[in-house]
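Running this now, will post back.
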Amino acid sequence: MNIETFVLGVNQTNCYLVWGESEGLVIDPGDDPKLLIDIVNARKIKLKYVINTHAHFDHIMGNNTLVSSTGAKLAINRLDVEMLSNAFYNLSAYFLSPFCSIKPDILLEDGSKLCVESEEFTVIHTPGHTPGASCIYFPERRVVFTGDTLFRFSYGRTDLFGGNAEDMLASLKKLLAILKDEDICLPGHGENFKFGEVRKWIEELV
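Update: finished.
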């Protein structure tokens, strides 16, 4: 499995292209995906999914162009669907011109499993930053895309629409029980890190 990071948009959002021999997926296309589309085409990757870890504007603004250009299926947790089409809920109305995403093809839930080629990944529902915030976990590869749930020694804001501080702490506690110290965390913003680096910090926090 290959992973390439693209830092997109005003909030410097990490967008991830994940692919195997021929199939791939994109996680959190936060802005104009032209470069991403060019690379997908040049490498002859069949894009199977576009996945949003949550529905804030800086993680969804490439949805429409990417899906229409590649035929990929859009997936997001069902609790964030309303935010996709509401520019005030997804915050684009406050930061940029209002943006509304197309409707998702796949509604994710905690424990949902999808495959790209032979690679299976699991959805971990981690509300707190938004109601439907989720992490995308490849347990065999020891890789987890944490969105804005978990950064290195930090976590996503809980004071925005749909945020909840108690839910966030419960989600971090949930990750303690699921993730291994050697798992590599690829967050929605900032640098990658191993979960073991932040385990003690989370334990003290929750």
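The helical segments are 34-42, 63-70, 81-84, 92-95, 165-178, 195-205. More later if anyone needs it.
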